[in-house]
Amino acid sequence: MENRSSVSVFLVVGLSDNLEPQLLLFLLFLSIYLITVVGNIVILTLISFDQRLHTPMYFFLANLSIIDIIFSSVTVPKLLFILVTAHKSISFSGCLTQLSFFQFLMVVECYLLAVMAYDRYVAICYPLNYALIMSKAVRFGLVATCWISGILNSVVQAVSISTLDFCGPNMVDHFFCDVTPLFKLSCSDTRVGETLFMMVVIFAGMGPLIFILLTYIKIIFAITRISSSRGRIKTFSTCASHFTVVAFYYGSGIFSYIWPTTTYAMDKDVKLVAVLYTIMTPMLNPIIYSLRNREVKEVLKKVLGVKGIK
Protein backbone atom coordinates (compact mmCIF):
# COMPACT_ATOMS: atom_id res chain seq x y z
CA MET A 1 0.00 0.00 0.00
CA GLU A 2 3.01 2.31 -0.06
CA ASN A 3 2.70 5.11 -2.56
CA ARG A 4 5.83 5.68 -4.65
CA SER A 5 4.64 8.78 -6.49
CA SER A 6 7.03 11.50 -7.55
CA VAL A 7 4.08 13.90 -7.59
CA SER A 8 3.35 15.47 -4.20
CA VAL A 9 1.23 18.38 -5.44
CA PHE A 10 -1.59 18.50 -7.98
CA LEU A 11 -2.79 21.50 -9.97
CA VAL A 12 -6.58 21.74 -10.26
CA VAL A 13 -7.47 23.11 -13.71
CA GLY A 14 -10.80 24.57 -12.57
CA LEU A 15 -13.66 25.57 -14.83
CA SER A 16 -11.86 27.90 -17.23
CA ASP A 17 -8.36 29.03 -18.13
CA ASN A 18 -9.72 32.39 -19.23
CA LEU A 19 -8.92 35.00 -16.59
CA GLU A 20 -11.67 37.45 -17.58
CA PRO A 21 -14.74 35.68 -16.09
CA GLN A 22 -12.98 34.58 -12.90
CA LEU A 23 -14.38 37.39 -10.71
CA LEU A 24 -17.88 36.88 -12.10
CA LEU A 25 -17.65 33.14 -11.45
CA PHE A 26 -16.36 33.83 -7.94
CA LEU A 27 -19.34 36.05 -7.12
CA LEU A 28 -21.76 33.56 -8.69
CA PHE A 29 -20.46 30.52 -6.79
CA LEU A 30 -20.06 32.47 -3.57
CA SER A 31 -23.73 33.49 -3.80
CA ILE A 32 -24.78 29.91 -4.51
CA TYR A 33 -22.71 28.61 -1.61
CA LEU A 34 -24.18 31.13 0.84
CA ILE A 35 -27.72 30.34 -0.32
CA THR A 36 -26.97 26.62 0.06
CA VAL A 37 -25.66 26.92 3.60
CA VAL A 38 -28.30 29.40 4.79
CA GLY A 39 -31.16 27.57 3.06
CA ASN A 40 -30.27 24.18 4.52
CA ILE A 41 -29.69 25.66 7.98
CA VAL A 42 -33.17 27.22 7.75
CA ILE A 43 -34.63 23.79 6.89
CA LEU A 44 -32.81 22.21 9.85
CA THR A 45 -33.98 25.01 12.16
CA LEU A 46 -37.61 24.72 11.08
CA ILE A 47 -37.59 20.95 11.54
CA SER A 48 -36.16 21.35 15.03
CA PHE A 49 -38.51 24.21 15.89
CA ASP A 50 -41.92 22.66 15.30
CA GLN A 51 -43.36 19.34 16.46
CA ARG A 52 -45.41 19.08 13.25
CA LEU A 53 -42.18 18.43 11.38
CA HIS A 54 -40.98 15.71 13.76
CA THR A 55 -42.02 12.97 11.35
CA PRO A 56 -40.01 10.36 9.39
CA MET A 57 -40.16 12.38 6.15
CA TYR A 58 -38.65 15.46 7.78
CA PHE A 59 -36.12 13.36 9.69
CA PHE A 60 -34.80 12.18 6.33
CA LEU A 61 -35.00 15.72 4.95
CA ALA A 62 -32.91 16.97 7.88
CA ASN A 63 -30.23 14.40 7.02
CA LEU A 64 -30.36 15.53 3.39
CA SER A 65 -29.80 19.12 4.49
CA ILE A 66 -26.78 18.10 6.57
CA ILE A 67 -25.36 16.21 3.59
CA ASP A 68 -25.91 19.17 1.27
CA ILE A 69 -24.13 21.61 3.59
CA ILE A 70 -21.07 19.35 3.87
CA PHE A 71 -21.26 18.28 0.21
CA SER A 72 -21.04 21.83 -1.11
CA SER A 73 -18.37 22.69 1.48
CA VAL A 74 -16.11 19.94 0.14
CA THR A 75 -15.78 21.49 -3.32
CA VAL A 76 -16.94 25.13 -3.37
CA PRO A 77 -14.49 26.81 -0.91
CA LYS A 78 -11.47 25.41 -2.80
CA LEU A 79 -13.04 26.46 -6.11
CA LEU A 80 -13.60 29.98 -4.74
CA PHE A 81 -9.98 30.11 -3.58
CA ILE A 82 -8.79 29.12 -7.06
CA LEU A 83 -11.02 31.70 -8.73
CA VAL A 84 -9.94 34.60 -6.52
CA THR A 85 -6.22 33.80 -6.23
CA ALA A 86 -5.47 31.70 -9.34
CA HIS A 87 -3.54 29.45 -6.94
CA LYS A 88 -4.47 26.01 -8.25
CA SER A 89 -2.18 23.74 -6.27
CA ILE A 90 -3.42 21.15 -3.80
CA SER A 91 -1.28 18.65 -1.90
CA PHE A 92 -1.60 14.93 -2.54
CA SER A 93 -3.07 14.43 0.95
CA GLY A 94 -5.43 17.38 0.47
CA CYS A 95 -6.58 16.00 -2.87
CA LEU A 96 -7.13 12.56 -1.35
CA THR A 97 -9.08 14.08 1.55
CA GLN A 98 -11.35 16.05 -0.80
CA LEU A 99 -11.92 12.95 -2.93
CA SER A 100 -12.73 10.82 0.13
CA PHE A 101 -15.32 13.24 1.51
CA PHE A 102 -16.88 13.74 -1.91
CA GLN A 103 -17.22 10.00 -2.57
CA PHE A 104 -18.53 9.47 0.96
CA LEU A 105 -21.29 12.08 0.68
CA MET A 106 -22.24 11.20 -2.89
CA VAL A 107 -23.05 7.61 -1.92
CA VAL A 108 -24.85 8.67 1.27
CA GLU A 109 -27.11 10.96 -0.76
CA CYS A 110 -27.85 8.25 -3.35
CA TYR A 111 -29.00 5.83 -0.66
CA LEU A 112 -30.82 8.52 1.31
CA LEU A 113 -32.87 9.49 -1.75
CA ALA A 114 -33.84 5.82 -2.06
CA VAL A 115 -34.85 5.74 1.61
CA MET A 116 -36.96 8.87 1.12
CA ALA A 117 -38.70 7.19 -1.83
CA TYR A 118 -39.45 4.18 0.35
CA ASP A 119 -40.84 6.50 3.03
CA ARG A 120 -43.27 8.03 0.49
CA TYR A 121 -44.22 4.53 -0.72
CA VAL A 122 -45.11 3.40 2.79
CA ALA A 123 -47.00 6.65 3.52
CA ILE A 124 -49.14 6.32 0.37
CA CYS A 125 -49.56 2.55 0.06
CA TYR A 126 -49.79 1.67 3.78
CA PRO A 127 -51.05 4.85 5.47
CA LEU A 128 -52.67 3.06 8.44
CA ASN A 129 -49.44 1.21 9.27
CA TYR A 130 -47.08 4.07 8.40
CA ALA A 131 -46.17 4.99 11.98
CA LEU A 132 -45.53 1.34 12.84
CA ILE A 133 -43.48 0.53 9.73
CA MET A 134 -41.45 3.75 9.87
CA SER A 135 -40.78 3.58 13.59
CA LYS A 136 -37.99 5.54 15.21
CA ALA A 137 -35.73 2.47 15.28
CA VAL A 138 -36.38 1.73 11.60
CA ARG A 139 -35.69 5.24 10.34
CA PHE A 140 -32.53 5.56 12.45
CA GLY A 141 -31.42 2.18 11.11
CA LEU A 142 -32.07 3.23 7.51
CA VAL A 143 -30.15 6.48 7.89
CA ALA A 144 -27.28 4.72 9.67
CA THR A 145 -27.06 2.28 6.77
CA CYS A 146 -26.79 5.20 4.34
CA TRP A 147 -23.94 6.82 6.27
CA ILE A 148 -22.08 3.53 6.79
CA SER A 149 -22.36 2.73 3.08
CA GLY A 150 -20.82 6.12 2.30
CA ILE A 151 -17.94 5.49 4.71
CA LEU A 152 -17.20 2.10 3.12
CA ASN A 153 -17.16 3.62 -0.36
CA SER A 154 -14.92 6.44 0.82
CA VAL A 155 -12.40 4.00 2.29
CA VAL A 156 -12.39 1.84 -0.86
CA GLN A 157 -11.84 4.81 -3.17
CA ALA A 158 -9.19 6.39 -0.93
CA VAL A 159 -7.21 3.14 -0.74
CA SER A 160 -7.60 2.64 -4.50
CA ILE A 161 -6.14 6.07 -5.29
CA SER A 162 -3.50 6.13 -2.53
CA THR A 163 -1.89 2.93 -3.83
CA LEU A 164 -1.40 4.34 -7.35
CA ASP A 165 1.80 5.92 -8.62
CA PHE A 166 1.77 9.44 -10.05
CA CYS A 167 4.85 10.26 -12.12
CA GLY A 168 3.56 13.38 -13.89
CA PRO A 169 1.81 15.32 -15.33
CA ASN A 170 -0.02 16.61 -12.27
CA MET A 171 -2.85 18.67 -13.83
CA VAL A 172 -6.25 17.49 -12.50
CA ASP A 173 -8.64 18.29 -15.36
CA HIS A 174 -11.58 19.18 -13.11
CA PHE A 175 -12.55 21.82 -10.53
CA PHE A 176 -12.07 19.36 -7.66
CA CYS A 177 -10.25 16.08 -7.00
CA ASP A 178 -12.33 13.13 -8.12
CA VAL A 179 -11.58 9.49 -8.85
CA THR A 180 -11.67 9.39 -12.64
CA PRO A 181 -9.44 12.42 -13.41
CA LEU A 182 -6.85 10.96 -11.02
CA PHE A 183 -6.99 7.59 -12.76
CA LYS A 184 -6.03 9.38 -15.98
CA LEU A 185 -2.97 10.93 -14.32
CA SER A 186 -1.64 7.72 -12.79
CA CYS A 187 1.32 5.88 -14.31
CA SER A 188 0.15 2.65 -12.60
CA ASP A 189 -2.20 -0.01 -13.91
CA THR A 190 -5.62 1.40 -12.95
CA ARG A 191 -7.80 -1.46 -14.22
CA VAL A 192 -8.56 -2.80 -10.74
CA GLY A 193 -9.39 0.66 -9.41
CA GLU A 194 -11.57 1.47 -12.42
CA THR A 195 -13.44 -1.82 -12.01
CA LEU A 196 -14.06 -1.08 -8.31
CA PHE A 197 -15.26 2.40 -9.18
CA MET A 198 -17.68 1.16 -11.85
CA MET A 199 -19.03 -1.36 -9.33
CA VAL A 200 -19.72 1.55 -6.98
CA VAL A 201 -21.43 3.46 -9.80
CA ILE A 202 -23.63 0.43 -10.52
CA PHE A 203 -24.47 -0.67 -6.97
CA ALA A 204 -24.38 2.63 -5.07
CA GLY A 205 -25.58 4.85 -7.90
CA MET A 206 -27.75 2.96 -10.36
CA GLY A 207 -29.02 0.51 -7.73
CA PRO A 208 -30.77 3.19 -5.63
CA LEU A 209 -32.06 4.86 -8.82
CA ILE A 210 -33.67 1.62 -10.03
CA PHE A 211 -35.19 1.16 -6.57
CA ILE A 212 -36.57 4.72 -6.66
CA LEU A 213 -38.10 4.21 -10.12
CA LEU A 214 -39.71 0.90 -9.11
CA THR A 215 -41.02 2.54 -5.95
CA TYR A 216 -42.60 5.38 -7.93
CA ILE A 217 -44.21 2.92 -10.32
CA LYS A 218 -45.94 1.32 -7.33
CA ILE A 219 -46.84 4.76 -5.96
CA ILE A 220 -48.38 5.79 -9.29
CA PHE A 221 -50.45 2.59 -9.40
CA ALA A 222 -51.64 3.28 -5.86
CA ILE A 223 -52.55 6.88 -6.76
CA THR A 224 -54.56 5.79 -9.82
CA ARG A 225 -56.79 3.74 -7.49
CA ILE A 226 -57.83 6.88 -5.59
CA SER A 227 -61.37 7.76 -6.67
CA SER A 228 -61.27 11.57 -6.64
CA SER A 229 -58.99 13.63 -8.88
CA ARG A 230 -58.39 16.06 -6.01
CA GLY A 231 -57.24 13.19 -3.82
CA ARG A 232 -54.88 11.95 -6.53
CA ILE A 233 -53.34 15.39 -6.99
CA LYS A 234 -52.96 15.93 -3.24
CA THR A 235 -51.35 12.52 -2.76
CA PHE A 236 -48.91 12.91 -5.62
CA SER A 237 -47.95 16.39 -4.41
CA THR A 238 -46.40 14.78 -1.34
CA CYS A 239 -43.91 13.09 -3.69
CA ALA A 240 -43.34 15.95 -6.12
CA SER A 241 -40.50 17.61 -4.18
CA HIS A 242 -38.59 14.36 -3.74
CA PHE A 243 -39.05 13.36 -7.37
CA THR A 244 -37.80 16.78 -8.53
CA VAL A 245 -34.67 16.47 -6.36
CA VAL A 246 -34.01 12.96 -7.73
CA ALA A 247 -34.38 14.22 -11.30
CA PHE A 248 -31.85 17.03 -10.76
CA TYR A 249 -29.34 14.88 -8.88
CA TYR A 250 -29.40 11.77 -11.03
CA GLY A 251 -29.96 13.56 -14.32
CA SER A 252 -26.63 15.37 -13.99
CA GLY A 253 -24.80 12.64 -12.07
CA ILE A 254 -25.47 9.93 -14.66
CA PHE A 255 -24.05 12.11 -17.44
CA SER A 256 -20.80 12.50 -15.50
CA TYR A 257 -20.31 8.95 -14.20
CA ILE A 258 -22.12 6.50 -16.47
CA TRP A 259 -19.46 6.56 -19.19
CA PRO A 260 -16.56 4.06 -18.90
CA THR A 261 -13.60 5.61 -17.14
CA THR A 262 -11.26 4.58 -19.97
CA THR A 263 -13.05 6.95 -22.37
CA TYR A 264 -13.62 9.69 -19.82
CA ALA A 265 -12.91 13.22 -21.04
CA MET A 266 -13.48 16.17 -18.75
CA ASP A 267 -14.55 18.67 -21.40
CA LYS A 268 -16.38 21.91 -20.64
CA ASP A 269 -19.82 20.33 -21.03
CA VAL A 270 -19.07 17.59 -18.51
CA LYS A 271 -17.65 20.14 -16.07
CA LEU A 272 -20.81 22.23 -16.37
CA VAL A 273 -22.93 19.14 -15.69
CA ALA A 274 -20.74 18.37 -12.67
CA VAL A 275 -21.52 21.87 -11.40
CA LEU A 276 -25.22 20.93 -11.40
CA TYR A 277 -24.98 17.98 -9.02
CA THR A 278 -22.07 19.21 -6.87
CA ILE A 279 -23.00 22.89 -6.47
CA MET A 280 -26.49 23.63 -7.80
CA THR A 281 -28.44 20.66 -6.40
CA PRO A 282 -27.47 21.31 -2.74
CA MET A 283 -28.78 24.86 -3.21
CA LEU A 284 -31.99 23.78 -4.96
CA ASN A 285 -32.97 21.10 -2.43
CA PRO A 286 -34.14 23.45 0.36
CA ILE A 287 -35.81 25.73 -2.20
CA ILE A 288 -37.71 22.84 -3.78
CA TYR A 289 -38.83 21.42 -0.46
CA SER A 290 -39.83 24.75 1.04
CA LEU A 291 -41.66 26.14 -2.01
CA ARG A 292 -43.63 22.95 -2.68
CA ASN A 293 -44.31 21.93 0.91
CA ARG A 294 -47.28 23.43 2.72
CA GLU A 295 -46.16 22.28 6.18
CA VAL A 296 -42.72 23.84 5.81
CA LYS A 297 -44.27 27.13 4.65
CA GLU A 298 -46.68 27.09 7.60
CA VAL A 299 -43.85 26.63 10.09
CA LEU A 300 -41.79 29.31 8.33
CA LYS A 301 -44.76 31.66 8.55
CA LYS A 302 -45.06 30.92 12.26
CA VAL A 303 -41.35 31.53 12.85
CA LEU A 304 -41.35 34.79 10.90
CA GLY A 305 -44.64 35.88 12.44
CA VAL A 306 -46.13 36.91 9.11
CA LYS A 307 -49.33 36.06 7.29
CA GLY A 308 -48.34 36.71 3.72
CA ILE A 309 -46.70 33.39 2.84
CA LYS A 310 -48.94 31.55 0.41
Task: Give an account of the 3D structure.
The chain is an all-alpha fold. It has a single domain (9-304), classed as Rhopdopsin 7-helix transmembrane proteins. The protein is 74% helix and 3% strand. It contains 10 helices and 3 strands; from the N terminus they run βααβαααβααααα. Strands 2-1-3 form a 3-stranded mixed beta sheet. Helix 3 runs parallel beside helix 7 (191-224) and helix 8 packs antiparallel against helix 9 (268-291). The radius of gyration is 21 Å and the shape is globular.
Q: In total, how many domains does the architecture comprise?
A: 1
Structural classification: mainly alpha
Largest sheet: 3 strands, mixed
Cα shape: globular
For the biggest β-sheet, the strand order reads: 2-1-3
Annotated CATH topology: Rhopdopsin 7-helix transmembrane proteins
User: What is the rounded distance between the termini?
Assistant: 58 Å
